[in-house]
Amino acid sequence: MNIRLEGLISPVSSSKKPHSMAESRISYKALAIIIILAISYQIYISEIMEDNDELEFGDITYGLSALVSGIVALFVAKRYRGSEIFMGTYASLGIGFLFLFVGDTTYNYHVYILNEDPYPSIADVFFLLFYPFIIYHLIKNIRYFKKNLSSGLKLGVAILTLTIVSVFALISFDEIEGHSFESYFGLVFVLGSSLILSLTLLGVLVFRQSILGTAWLLLAIGIFLFTFADVWYYYLELIKEYSSSNFINTLWVLSNMLIVYALYKHRKTI
Question: What is the Cα–Cα distance from 43 to 224, expressed in whole angstroms?
Answer without folding.
Answer: 23
